[in-house]
TrEMBL record:
SMART domains attached to this UniProt entry: P4Hc (SM00702)
Record keywords, A-Z: Dioxygenase, Iron, Metal-binding, Oxidoreductase, Vitamin C
Taxonomic path: Bacteria, Pseudomonadati, Pseudomonadota, Betaproteobacteria, Neisseriales
Protein name: SM-20
Domain of life according to the entry: Bacteria
Residue ranges of every copy of the Fe2OG dioxygenase domain listed in the record: 99-197
Length: 200
């Protein structure tokens, strides 16, 4: 795993983003899916913006989320410890100065989407690296639900689509890539979060 972590850090330097299939084993994906089932009643419709600017807008995003407590010892997979290990590598290898991370589970119902956006909030650009970890079972291209990452150069209009295969981890620099979630024909599950600097 540590070699994988170092390779991911290098790819983030080279490319600003990393697609890492098999970050979780199929068994680990199943365990986290079961955990989502257990907690599903506590999910809430996701919003956009922060604090006073926070609002629900189903024209922009249609997922339900459940924020995680970073001290949560009850997750069936030590995913928070792995994210913490990545956070430390970001600092020791890249000097990113990310003091913490925040994470939530997300469930997009069939037809759900998240329109093109940047993950940094307008008045609080503390998000440095975004991660998305897919928790889908037996996903196919035809199911849709791709993460569409718009490549750096806005004029070119080029993008890269990532299929949300269970166990795939995506990392990217939060201020660099606009992205969107394409509607899927099935429910689409993930854990998403941000490595962040502390707010000034
Ligand atoms: O689920 C994904 O692929 C991306 C989610 C996303 O862009 C977000 O929550 O900000
Ligand atoms: Fe996003």
């Amino acid at each position: 795993m540590l070699n994988g972590f170092n390779a991911a850090v290098q790819a983030l330097v080279d490319d600003g983003k990393v697609i890492w299939p098999g970050f979780l084993s199929p068994e680990e994906v199943q365990l986290l899916r079961a955990e989502i089932d257990l907690r599903r009643a506590r999910f809430q419709a996701a919003g956009i913006g922060r604090e006073q600017g926070y609002m629900r807008d189903t024209r922009i995003r249609g997922d339900d989320v459940l924020w995680l407590d970073n001290d949560d010892q009850t997750l069936p997979v030590p995913i928070l410890a792995r994210l913490e290990a990545l956070r430390q590598l970001f600092n020791s290898e890249l000097y990113l100065g990310v003091a913490e991370f925040e994470a939530h589970f997300a469930v997009y119902p069939a037809g759900g989407f998240y329109k093109r956006h940047l993950d940094q909030h307008r008045n609080a650009d503390t998000r440095v690296v975004t991660f998305v970890l897919y928790l889908n079972e037996d996903w196919h291209e035809r199911d849709g639900g791709q993460l569409r990452i718009y490549l750096d150069c806005p004029q070119s209009g080029a993008w890269q689509d990532v299929t949300p295969l269970g166990g795939t981890l995506v990392l990217f620099l939060s201020d660099r890539f606009e992205h969107e979630v394409i509607p899927a024909t099935r429910e689409r599950r993930s854990m998403t979060g941000w490595f962040r600097r502390r707010a000034m």
